[in-house]
Amino acid sequence: MSPNQPDHVRLFIPGPVEVRREILEAQSEWMIGHRSGEFADLYARIQGKLQQTFYTENPVYIYTSSGSGIWESASRCTVREDAKILHLTCGAFSERWADVSRVNGKDVDLIAVEWGQAIKPDQLEDALKHGQYDAVACVMNETATGVRNPVEEYARIMENYPDTLFLVDVVSIYCGAKVDVDAWGIDVCLTSTQKAFALPPGMAFGAVSPAVLERAKDVKNRGYYFDVLEIDKHHRKNNTPATPPVSLMFAADKQLDDILAEGLEARFARTEHMAQMTRDWAARAGFEMFSEDGYHSPTVSNVANNREIDIAALNKFLRARGMVISNGYGKLKGQAFRIAHMGDTQPADLEALFAAMDDFLQQQG
Ligand SMILES: Cc1ncc(COP(=O)(O)O)c(C=O)c1O
Question: Using one digit for the tens of pLDDT, what is the confidence trace for 236-252?
Fold first, then answer.
């Protein structure tokens, strides 16, 4: 029994997500030096499997940071001094990435829609017709609102703007639905490990195209820790510029084997099935979805609290049964609640959650 966690509480929050015991244990391998041949082997082994999961032949860099680090890397390395970046915002995380670009001194234009809405392809097309951008940055799955944006449709538009780099945050959808990096021409595709990949937090992956490296050569002040040119130099030797999270990499090596053994398509289908189960439960229980119809996320459902239940009381009730969900994010606190159905969560886990939620609602009368 751990002093930090006397009882196991199963996480249905959208990150960190529940991590399987075998994955936690994979981190307890004996330490190896990161300039050793064993490390280069580990790096190369993970690399091939990461490329499969991102559907790309581009290198997938391993960052010793959470996903926010790659936001900074992407904003900083792709936008030149006299140029602009276009951010598509529809919730807290896409808005925060725009802030990251601003605090790094970039000139930011926005397409901003109400929380709960998706950004439509014609909005992007219109903005690109009227402005010139070094990069477009978007979030495929807005974790704060449960909206999945139509990135594959943006991709078709971006084909007409070959000098504009396409930066996509797939933090809460990678390994929960297909992210077809090469087919969609994504230049920086970034994710963290603590979401649908179902690893502990602390590491991030970024699939980066050759066009980004070319652009970076023309960008001043790329910084040190997140400079893609420096990262790429080491990547070519199956290494990282600074000390990497070796234990997390052991766990990633096993998790990638397990994900590929399940089959990517099967994993995506299981995730979508759980999303549908969640929407069905919500409808049965008299709740509406907060996210726009046609754009519901496959990995996290944002349920409108139209029944005005006490979400904190619900979570207290659930915790006593070894489970926890998420309140609405930021300004949606109390107005919505989020149920994550990603990673290694199984339909039976969700059934147990819904049974407990039904008990709570029944008790409320
Ligand atoms: C869509 C999205 N992007 C980025 C982030 C930030 O990632 P991290 O917390 O790994 O830095 C999050 C975090 O929840 C997120 O949901």
Answer: 999 999 999 999 999 99
